[in-house]
Specification:
By secondary structure, this protein is an alpha/beta fold. The protein is built from 8 helices and 15 strands. It has a 5-stranded parallel beta sheet, with helices on both faces. It is elongated. The protein starts with a strand and ends with a helix.
Length: 248
């Protein structure tokens, strides 16, 4: 059994989640429920859980602040959030499990299955530490969790030169490193990277605009990166890129 704690300041959310767990997640044992982060800190110390369902927004101390106090995270976490878009993006870029309220039973089952798999592979929680770092950092200092065969590799967002679609995969070009081929579509990757510094220049190419050194109109239009690479710009995206670069 996976020993778990639910931490949420809304009692009706605790009741609803507890019921769904009882009905759909037989591997989960609810050891305690808490109505505040303060209660949660005490329960974690007492119960030593394998898994914590943690509400993001709570009065006095939110879920992230509670984790900062704990410091060394030695349990899995499934975050629950109502509508915090920034938090949801931080979860995705850090490859951390979360559930949107009202929680769908099928989404709950999928999240629990992921936790079961992680626990079978051993207690390693770098994703949570990366999430907490991303919450504190501006977007250009954040790290994205890129899926590799053995798990995930954390890469600084600002070090990504560009991403190129390879069918259902995406090749990620990183400054000073070998290219990475990841099992995500370019659309999926584009949703995670900050639009403040990334621009789609072609249906198959997403580029970090801070690495653009030249825009040339010849051969239909292309850009030159600081490392000398040339990338084609599609006709449909040329005007948007030129405006972004202050060329019109």
């Amino acid at each position: 059994m996976i020993r778990s704690i639910i931490i949420d300041d809304e009692q009706h959310c605790i009741k609803s989640l507890s019921k769904d767990i009882e009905l759909h997640c037989p591997s989960i044992e609810i050891a305690d429920t808490c109505n505040s982060a303060k209660e949660g800190l005490m329960a974690i110390k007492k119960q030593v859980p394998d898994l914590v369902f943690l509400d993001v927004e709570m009065p006095w101390m939110n879920g992230f602040e509670m984790l900062e106090i704990i410091g060394d995270i030695n349990f899995s976490i499934i975050f629950t959030t109502a509508h915090d878009e920034f938090a949801a993006k931080a979860f995705r870029i850090s490859a951390v499990d979360y559930l949107l309220k009202p929680i769908d039973a099928q989404d709950l089952v999928i999240a629990v299955q992921k936790v079961e798999k992680k626990l079978e592979q051993g207690h390693h929680f770098p994703h949570i530490n990366n999430l907490l770092q991303n919450i504190r950092q501006p977007f250009d200092e954040q790290k994205i969790a890129l899926p590799v065969r053995e798990g995930y590799e954390f890469v600084e967002v600002s070090s990504i030169l560009y991403c190129h679609a390879e069918g259902a995969y995406t090749k990620v070009l990183i400054q000073g490193k070998r290219p990475m081929l990841i099992s995500r579509t370019l659309g999926d990757v584009a949703e995670l990277l900050p639009p403040e510094i990334f621009q789609r220049i072609h249906h198959s190419t997403l580029v970090n605009v801070t690495y653009i050194s030249q825009f040339l109109r010849t051969d239909g239009g292309y850009i030159v990166l600081k490392n000398g690479e040339r990338l084609a710009v599609s006709k449909t995206r040329k005007e948007t890129l030129m405006a972004r670069l202050g060329l019109k």
